[in-house]
Design goal:
The protein has two domains: about 325 residues, TIM Barrel (Alpha-Beta Barrel), CATH 3.20.20.300; about 130 residues, 3-Layer(aba) Sandwich (Rossmann fold), CATH 3.40.50. It is globular and about 80 Å long. The longest helix has 21 residues. Helix 4 packs across helix 5, helix 9 packs across helix 10 and helix 13 runs parallel beside helix 16. The protein has about 475 residues and is of the alpha/beta class. It is built from 16 helices and 14 strands. The strands form three sheets. A seven-stranded parallel beta sheet has the order 2-3-4-5-6-7-8. The relative contact order is 0.11.
């Protein structure tokens, strides 16, 4: 009986791995290609991955979105700064991307730490690097996930990441072909368009992918993107025979092609089963994260799909099968992450903190954001005042409450995250109003929200982790001159 599960990688919810294990084991016995891991506790997930691998004929593809380290998904792993912060922390001054020996080793050390922790968890495939060039400041889904805004930066750092991951036993997956950087729509929600000519794509968006292929990247992910220069019919590139042909014949890519997640809103015009069949018939090797693996497999069988899994089987045979037994040095990795965060943060040269400031927190995230920042700041300035500015807040009243001579620090919390979409108009307006009354504005997340603010009055912190908040507070406290 033909195995149609071999083309599918469904979701593994790490938080539900105990209760869901029987279903996952049944999928392995049916011949599933592997799983994409979301969430869970490191030791628990690690144990279950080992048991699933023991039940599989071929090594399973155990994949995860670890752009920011194992801690991005598993509790107990190390979280590293996003790609844009990594590039800022290690990139040399001036033009070009030649790193000093120390900075290059710091960068590679972070990628080695990521690979080491992934191997320990049993993850053998990482959906990174992001090879998109973030040229659109209104991009709601790429942002700080990109290494930068120019061809050279993204190509250099992307190939460095591929090289180190694969030298350390992890299959890298470059994404999102042919480039999601110059779009203004989150493909998790709707289908974005990239309307550049093929000449323009070849000179810009496609360059990091070409460099990745030359470097030997083992997998590329096709984005759910409408790109008329490559596929004039308007269907998403992820389902396009012309896009696959371009990769195979023009760019000479011989390794594994995978779709972006098949449950995303960019494919909402099609039934999931139809979209999956279109992608496979286009020449894609693996379907990522369909909601209903069983339905998809049954549909492929009914439609008489005659897939060839030779390339995929060969890829799987080369993968790490079982979690590493050697426990990584998580303490050292946490220190490495802190070093990168500190290196990425720079206060404006002329900014000085003169007295107890008013700190205004602005957030479009859930929960009480900024707690770590406030705690760290209060350790150096116990009498600083804290206010929160929500939708409809009276900005003048908030800033006047501290007195006429008080300095104002605005802290903006807005992460780049799937299914979130772009920042609301109220939020952008609030940032503008607060920033005009502030001595300095910090962005814990999307730095492009501060693009209208002069360079001497802002600081990009790139993400909202506790460590980033604490390090940002330390930078400000170094400028304290009471």
């Amino acid at each position: 009986m033909r195995n149609y599960y071999r083309f599918i990688i469904p979701r593994m919810n790490g938080e539900e791995i105990e209760t869901d294990f029987r279903r996952q084991l049944a999928l392995v016995r049916k011949g599933i290609a592997g799983f994409i891991v979301f969430g869970g506790k490191l030791q628990q997930v690690r144990l279950h991955i080992k048991r699933l691998q023991e039940a599989s004929g071929l090594p399973l593809i155990i994949a995860s979105d670890l752009e920011r380290g194992l801690g991005q998904q598993l509790k107990g792993g190390t979280s590293f700064p996003p790609a844009m912060a990594l590039a800022k922390a290690t990139k040399g001054r001036g033009k070009g991307n030649t790193l000093s020996g120390t900075k290059q080793e710091l960068l590679r050390d972070s990628f080695r730490a990521l690979a080491e922790e992934a191997r320990y968890a049993g993850i053998n495939t990482i959906f990174a690097p992001v090879l998109d060039i973030n040229t659109n400041p209104d991009n709601p889904i790429i942002g700080v996930r990109a290494f930068g805004e120019d061809v050279g930066t993204v190509s250099f750092f992307g190939t460095e990441m591929i090289r180190v991951l694969q030298e350390n036993g992890i299959a890298a997956c470059g994404k999102h072909f042919p480039g999601h950087g110059d779009t203004d729509t989150d493909s998790h929600m709707r289908l974005p368009s990239s309307n550049h000519s093929l000449r323009s794509l070849c000179a810009n968006e496609l360059v990091p992918f070409r460099m990745a292929i030359v470097t030997g990247v083992q997998m590329l992910m096709l984005g759910h993107l409408r790109v008329p220069a490559i596929e004039p019919s308007g269907i998403p590139v992820s389902l396009s025979p012309k896009a696959v042909s371009y990769l195979r014949n023009r760019l000479r890519f011989k390794n594994i092609l995978i779709t972006d997640a098949m449950n995303m809103g960019g494919l909402s015009a099609l039934r999931e089963e139809e979209a999956c069949l279109m992608a496979l018939r286009a020449g894609v090797d693996i379907l990522l994260h369909p909601l209903h693996a069983g339905r998809v497999a049954s549909y492929l069988a009914r439609q008489g799909y005659e897939g060839n899994s030779t390339r995929l089987d060969r890829f799987r045979m080369g993968l790490l099968r079982f979690p590493d037994e050697t426990r990584p040095d998580f303490v050292r990795h946490a220190g490495l992450s802190r070093t990168l965060i500190r290196s990425a943060l720079t206060a404006p040269q002329r900014f000085r903190l003169r007295a107890a400031p008013l700190v205004v927190i602005i957030s479009d995230e859930e929960g009480q954001q900024g707690q770590a920042f406030i705690r760290a700041l209060k350790q150096g300035i116990p009498d600083c005042q804290i206010r929160r500015a929500g939708r409809g807040a009276d900005v003048r009243k908030i800033t006047d409450s501290a007195g006429p001579d008080a300095q104002v620090i605005a802290a903006v919390f807005s992460e780049t995250r799937a299914w979130k979409g772009e920042a609301g108009e109220w939020f952008r307006e609030m940032i503008g109003l607060i920033a005009r009354q502030s001595d300095i504005t910090l962005s814990f997340g999307n730095p492009y929200l501060l693009r209208e603010i002069p360079a001497g009055k802002k600081m990009s912190c790139y993400w909202n982790s506790e460590s980033a908040q604490e390090e940002a507070a330390k930078v400000l406290l170094k400028q304290y001159r009471p």
